[in-house]
What we know:
Blueprint lengths: L3 H34 L8 H18 L5 E5 L2 E9 L2 E8 L7 E4 L8 E2 L1
Antiparallel strand pairs: 1-2, 2-3, 3-4, 4-5
Helix pairs in contact: 1-2
Amino acid sequence: MVTLEQARTRLAVLRPSIDELIRLRADFAELRADLAGAGRSPLGGLAEAKACEARIFSLLEEISSGDVQMKGYAPVLLDFPGQREGRDVLWCWLEGDADINWYHRSDCGFPGRRPA
């Protein structure tokens, strides 16, 4: 369990890895589309696609370790288990959010998001 401030600190530490994941996710999508169509890509060939995929899986493991739950990859959705007013909650960050400004009860999921 982490406080909101601890979750925000953890997110700040993870941001470089998240940014790399987002970039590689786009590269991998283009590589796959290009290789399936024209059989070649300005981003490389099969070897580059495999290396990109391997790095993506490494980043997914890195980001979702410890006190972070990765709930989505495209878009990236992260939950940090914590407590608010004596109730278990998940501090919630969605790709595009500037900071962790949302939470939801553990038993309500994403539809139960409320402003932190």
